[in-house]
Design goal:
The complex is a heterodimer of chains A (315) and B (628). By secondary structure, chain A is α+β, with helices and mostly antiparallel strands. Among the domains of chain A are: 68-99, no CATH class; 112-266 and 279-292, Ribosomal protein S6/Translation elongation factor EF1B (Alpha-Beta Plaits, 2-Layer Sandwich). Chain A contains nine helices and eight strands. In chain A, the strands form two sheets. In chain A, strands 1, 4, 5, 6, 7 and 8 form a six-stranded antiparallel β-sheet that branches. A two-stranded antiparallel ribbon of chain A has the order 2-3. In chain A, strand 2 (193-194) and strand 3 (200-201) form a beta hairpin. Chain A is rod-shaped. Chain B is an alpha+beta fold. Chain B contains 15 helices and 22 strands. Chain B has helices spanning 51-64, 94-110, 140-152, 163-174, 176-180, 216-227, 248-270, 295-298, 323-332, 345-446, 462-467, 469-478, 539-550, 570-581, 583-586; strands spanning 8-14, 18-27, 30-40, 72-76, 81-88, 116-122, 131-139, 157-162, 184-191, 196-202, 205-212, 280-287, 306-309, 313-314, 317-318, 455-461, 491-492, 498-499, 512-513, 522-530, 558-559, 589-597. Chain B has a five-stranded mixed β-sheet. Chain B has a five-stranded mixed β-sheet with strand order 11-10-9-12-13, with helices on both faces. A four-stranded antiparallel β-sheet of chain B has the order 16-20-22-21, sandwiched between helices. In chain B, a hairpin with a 2-residue loop joins strand 10 (196-202) and strand 11. Chain B starts with 7 loop residues before the first strand and ends in a 31-residue tail after the last strand. Classes of the chains: A alpha+beta (315), B alpha+beta (628). The interface between A and B is large, with 112 and 109 residues.
Chain lengths: 315, 628
């Protein structure tokens, strides 16, 4: 067909060629009118979709709005709580409130507010409190030695309130030990002797340095203070267990953070009916910590510095 | 207008005396004459040899008759063509036959410098019988001349064939039963003006075509001689006196009979079979001169048994002058049994293309349908895709809008959880210690084989053990170079009292981030076990170890090898001495020491990602929140 000139083509072939040409033109026009813009629109939408998807993938959240909504609702319930269940927010607040309120009444009576306590606690007041504690303990046959306790009325610290907290924590701890009929052990070292004539053995009670906790590295102010006091007590196991339980009661939160229990052979050995050894006297060296919030009831500001929460996402 | 159709066709017989046309149209499965027309050239004032004028007039005449646009089959004078009846081996394909015919006709072409057109027609093939083929050959220039002259006048010439073949087709159209007869040899004689054509036909097969140098003009000349007239009446108008034995018509008939006899004899000589000699023969006469009254009845001869007029019925009259035109029209429909088209190559090419046009049109229509279908599908696909993408996008946008809230919620949860980390960690230790005491007690009580004859004299957490004086001393021995903290100079107060080392507010980096609270992971215990004479030393110790592992509070309880005599608590020395002193009373005891890793922890601190140091940072190993 191609070897023949177009003029020799049969008329219907020429008509068909013209029709085919018109059809091609029509298809071309249809493409530009109907499809091109839509293809471009689809391409743009896909591009946006990919971009959005990538952005979402970077967050490691699932691409399911319903699931995310459910997760969000669940998280909100976890935080705020429901009618029947306490939320995390309230739990944290009440727990902190309970755990740091060991000296709340004392502070309120003496200073009114925590801010006043932190600002107005003085060296004189510390001396007074220390002296009262020392006198009280001496009355119970317990002598504080500075070499062990780490404090005496001459001690200086820029944070007077923290010194007061140490004294109060020691007082509370010793009282609980005594209430549970435990004996505070003493040091047999010469350098630990104390008393007016340096003839009393120093009690094994140490006010350890206060630990200040911050939520995130770089925080300027601690939100929680741990006031640890180390004490060595002697007694039988049952009394020690009672003492341990008394450390964490409704009114008291003085948890044992460290424990070392030893038993020693009896001075006069005796056997039971079968001739085996019987012993029930223990010596426990424990560290108990009281907690205090320097900012009072105010919670610290949530920091954006830490992106990851302690618990992994539920997704 | 270059195509022919099977629905209708016009046969155009341009003779030297008159021009005849018949319009054949299909009615159902058969064809019928729709119209016919003819004109006598002399009557129209046309000169005998002026072909251009003849074609011009014919063109306008057919336009007047509204036949010029219909597909026309133009007749070629038989005397200007050559036909040959040949036999080829049986069962040949059409392509092979065409090839062999080409070879044969090329021999004709080789005799002349002119180009020839050829075509052939296979005569009713019979299986395993030689293929009988009628071949038509004509000079190309003659065909193209006639074609160009006709088409120049606007005639839609779609076919051209030999007048002899047209005569045979007309016979097949008009007398199909006679033509199919096996016992009858039909002699078809078309009496033309100058020449006549004789066709031998039997059993629908053309067995030969011969041209006779006798025509209607011979009748006229003979009759004119007899009458001594300058101008004689036309053959058709002539009414001879058959009763007069001296009439010149008998001379003319005799001359015609001699011509026909000669042609028959010549044809019979060329036939291989002698069977045809004894076959019944019927002579069919057509053409203008066949209309001479009484001609058929007086044309008897020993060579044929019967003489019949051959022609279509037009206006209820037998019209033998239209026989060839009818055959041409029948050939033009493409449905005639005998088809030998002698047309110019261009027309042949065009007709081939037109014949295949439905396939081309179908293919393009299919392509168009497929294209349209694809367009529709693509349109729907685009819609669906767009909807899906929009839905996904909408979903993702919703997700994106929720992400800040989720991050905020997690951050809030993290915030409150972080607040509680020290409280939870330290608050749970008491419970852990008491639980450990209980487990040790229960293990001792539940022991079946060892009874309650073993006891622990030491229980400690990992921090207390490491801070014990014995361990500290051992560490100092192992690391004697470790610099001891320098003693601070003593300060005296204003009134001479010794002041304690000033305890300044710890710097900010001395604060402990909550994530750096060290969780309690391990407890240690040590004790004694009386030796049993019937058991190995570690047999009972192993049982205690197994019971502690089963208790649930611990996981991976094992011997604590780090606790040696030098790092053991002070009570060990006293117990050892005591037990040695009383060996005679209590027997021998084995010492055991276990580490008790805790199976669970109250808090789970997430792992921080390692901080990527910036280029040039000198502080290698600097991490977020370093321990104060």
């Amino acid at each position: 067909m191609s070897t023949r000139p177009f003029a020799e083509w049969p008329q219907e072939h020429r008509n068909l060629l013209a029709a085919t040409g018109l059809f091609v033109v029509f298809v071309g026009i249809a493409y530009f009118v109907f499809f091109r813009a839509r293809i471009q629109e689809l391409s743009d939408s896909r591009h946006t979709l990919a971009k959005t998807q990538k952005k979402l993938q970077e967050t490691s959240w699932p691409n399911d709005a319903g699931r995310l909504k459910r997760l969000l609702d669940g998280y909100k319930r976890d935080i705020e709580g429901t009618n029947t269940k306490q939320g995390l927010k309230q739990l944290a607040e009440t727990t902190l409130e309970h755990c740091t309120s060991l000296f709340a009444e004392r502070i309120k009576d003496a200073y009114g507010t925590d801010d006043n306590f932190m600002e107005k606690a003085s060296q004189v007041e510390f001396k007074d409190e220390y002296d009262k504690l020392d006198s009280y303990l001496q009355g119970k046959g317990i002598f504080l030695a500075k070499t062990i306790f780490g404090l005496d009325e001459t001690s200086l610290d820029s944070s007077k309130y923290q010194m007061l907290l140490k004294v109060w924590t020691t007082e509370k701890l010793v009282n609980l030990a005594l209430e549970n009929k435990l004996t505070v052990s003493v040091s047999f070292k010469k350098e630990d002797r104390t008393g007016p004539r340096n003839d009393k053995r120093g009690a094994l009670i140490t006010a350890l340095p206060i630990n200040s906790y911050i939520l995130n590295p770089g925080d300027k102010q601690p939100y929680l203070l741990e006031i640890p006091v180390k004490i060595t007590v002697t007694g039988n196991m049952a009394r020690f267990l009672d003492f341990a339980e008394a450390l964490q009661s409704e009114e008291t939160f003085l948890p044992m953070t460290r424990l070392e229990i030893q038993s020693f052979p009896p001075g006069d050995s005796k056997g039971n009916a079968e001739g085996f050894l019987v012993h029930d006297r223990i010596q426990a060296t424990i560290v108990c910590s009281a907690f205090y919030r320097p900012q009072g009831g105010k919670l610290p500001q949530s920091s954006k510095a830490l992106k990851k929460p302690p618990l992994p996402p539920g997704a | 207008m270059q195509w022919k159709t099977a629905k209708t066709a016009v046969g155009l017989d341009i003779g030297r005396y008159s021009v005849k046309a018949i319009h054949l149209e299909r009615h159902g499965k058969s064809y019928a004459i729709k119209s016919s027309c003819a004109f006598i050239q002399q009557a129209e004032g046309l000169l005998e040899d002026d072909e251009a004028e003849l074609y011009k007039f014919t063109g306008s005449w057919l336009k007047d008759k509204q036949l010029s646009d219909l597909p026309i089959c133009l007749g070629l004078p038989q005397e200007l063509t050559n036909s040959q009846y040949s036999s080829f081996p049986p069962n040949l394909t059409v392509d092979n036959l065409r090839y062999m015919v080409k070879k044969l006709t090329s021999q004709f072409s080789g005799l002349s410098d002119e180009a020839f057109l050829d075509n052939f027609c296979l005569m009713s093939p019979v299986k395993d019988q030689p293929s009988q083929v009628l071949i038509g050959v004509c000079r190309q220039s003659l065909v193209e001349d006639a074609y160009s002259k006709a088409t120049a006048q606007g005639l839609n010439i779609q076919d051209q064939t030999m007048n002899g073949l047209a005569l045979a087709n007309a016979f097949l159209f008009l007398q199909p039963l006679q033509a199919a007869s096996t016992s009858l040899l039909n002699l078809l004689l078309d009496l033309g003006t100058e020449t006549s054509t004789l066709v031998f036909l039997r059993q629908n097969r053309v067995l030969g075509i011969a041209s006779l140098m006798f025509g209607a003009s011979t009748f006229q000349k003979i009759m004119a001689t007899g009458q001594n007239e300058e101008s004689s009446p036309s053959a058709a108008q002539y009414n001879p006196d058959w009763n007069n034995p001296d009439a010149y018509i008998h001379l003319a008939i005799k001359r015609l009979q001699e011509e026909i006899d000669g042609a028959i004899q010549h044809w019979l000589e060329s036939q291989e079979t002698q069977e045809l000699d004894s076959t019944n023969r019927t002579l069919w006469i057509s053409g203008r001169a066949a209309a001479i009254p009484g001609l058929a009845s007086h044309l008897a001869s020993a060579e044929w048994n019967d003489v019949q007029l051959l022609g279509p019925q037009i206006d209820d009259n037998l019209s033998p002058e239209y026989t060839v035109a009818l055959g041409l029209a029948y050939h033009g429909t493409g449905k005639a049994p005998l088809q030998i088209s002698l047309i110019p190559p261009l027309l042949h090419w065009q007709q081939e293309k037109v014949a295949r046009f439905p396939f081309l049109a179908g293919a393009l229509a299919l392509l168009a349908v497929v294209t349209v279908a694809f367009a529709v599908w693509f349109h729907c696909h685009l819609n669906t895709e767009q909807e899906q993408v929009d839905d996904k996008l909408s979903e993702l946008k919703k997700c994106n809008s929720l992400v800040p809230d989720l991050d905020g919620a997690l951050e809030t949860m993290g915030y409150y959880q972080k607040l509680l980390i020290p409280i939870v960690e330290f608050g749970n230790r008491s419970r852990t210690f008491l639980h450990a005491c209980d487990v040790l007690y229960q293990t001792r009580s539940a022991a079946e084989n060892t009874a309650d004859d073993w006891w622990c004299y030491y229980l400690s957490d990992e921090f207390s053990y490491l801070d014990s004086e014995a361990v500290k001393k051992q560490r100092e021995k192992e690391q004697p170079d470790k610099t001891k903290p320098k003693p601070q100079p003593q300060a005296f107060g204003l009134f001479g009292n010794l002041l304690e080392e000033s305890q300044e507010e710890p710097p900010a980096d001395a604060y402990i981030p909550v994530f750096e609270v060290k969780p309690l992971t391990m407890l240690y215990t040590a004790g004694f076990l009386p030796s049993q004479s019937n058991r190995g030393r570690f047999e009972d110790i192993k049982r205690i170890y197994e019971d502690l592992n089963k208790a649930g509070l611990f996981t991976g309880v094992d011997w604590f090898s780090d606790m040696t005599e030098s790092t053991a608590p002070a009570s060990l020395t006293r117990w050892s001495k005591y037990l040695n002193d009383n060996k005679g009373k209590f027997g021998e005891f084995y010492h055991f020491v276990f580490k008790l890793p805790l199976s669970s922890r109250p808090i789970t601190i997430p792992e921080e990602k390692p901080v990527v140091l910036k280029r040039g940072a000198k502080a290698a190993g600097k991490t977020t929140g370093g321990k104060p």
